[in-house]
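Quick one, T. Sequence first:
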Amino acid sequence: MEKIIRAIGQYQPFNEQEAADQSEMLHLLGTYKEKLFLRETLFAHMTSSAWVVSGNRKEILMAYHNIYQAWSWLGGHADGDTDLLRVAVREVMEESGIKSVRPLLQDIFSLEILCVDGHVKRGKYVPSHLHLNVTYLLEADQNDPLRVKKDENSAVRWIERSSAPEISDEIWFREHIYRKLNQKLEGLNI
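Structure tokens:
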């Protein structure tokens, strides 16, 4: 756990949103420690997402999320795992069927605290809560076959990078997360 806390603390925020979210994440991690890596901590828990690019950097892998009824990035709950890069890779593979996925950077690509509305999952009500999210930049092989994970999404596909933010119906994600991720990607030399 100390490794991810150190990585979050050393992360250089890209904007005001990331700076504010970084500060709050560090505060919550200092207060609740390992409990935040379990989804049983109902008010907030750690998650990891991935901005998955194709080898030519022209497309982003996205899934149509069943609960939110919107196109979104891939990712999921830490479920006790404090290696959030491993969580991001695992979630991409589970949610998309992709087998060839690798980190383009070992470091954190983005930080955000995300509000999740109450919903029903597997027949049980989950109250509104926060996802303390760490995002990684991953690359996947476009030739790998894609597979829908029916309990989480109803479609998975490669979207042209410039169109990826626009395809999402979640306005806050589109405006403050996906556009930011593309902007950060444009600034990299990889």
